[in-house]
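Sample intake sheet
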Amino acid sequence: MSAPLTLFVDSLFLSPYAMSAYVALTEKQLPFEVRPIDLEAGEQRMQPYQARALTSRVPALTHEDFHLTESSAIAEYLDEAFPAPAHAALYPRDLRARARARQLQAWLRSDLAALRQERPTETVFHGAAGQPLSDAAHAAAAKLIHVAGSLLGTGQACLFDGWCIADTDLAVMLKRLSLDDLPAPLAAYADGQWQRPSVQKWLAHNAAARP
């Protein structure tokens, strides 16, 4: 690697997308610097961050003179810039499994808005209880459970033959329902994903940043 990598994340370490990019870098075993961005203060809209991050969002990755935002784009870039076998693969090797993983990532980022709103990541990381789910959030939760149950058999530890970054993304979404009625097999899957060393490192950052 010709230059260090820098990952810009939210200062409270609450963003599931920043977490996804952090886990991707950690799984690759790439040395990188973490730089927090204060979203509440609007730092993402200030210079020099705005010039660096095209969409003014976190996470953002800097590699040499290249800057990239959007967590799924970051994961795909890292997997091509630092490919297996020298570095751990972030996506399945099989073409269709890889496409399915990317489909799942795109869906988790674009759907289930009511669930994300009513069970924000404070629920995931801090165990904060929310109000009973609205009808819209119940429908989103049912959809999530259906999709996850269709992809995961009983006792299945990962979505495919081995871990991939979509496992982390799915586990975060399922963890939003930890205080609700999440079926036991899906809870066990999410809990298992939570024990990965890369995820535990992110959780340590989150705990240290907690107000």
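Comment: Strands lie at 5-10, 32-37, 60-63, 66-69. Residues 135-151 form the longest helix (17 residues).
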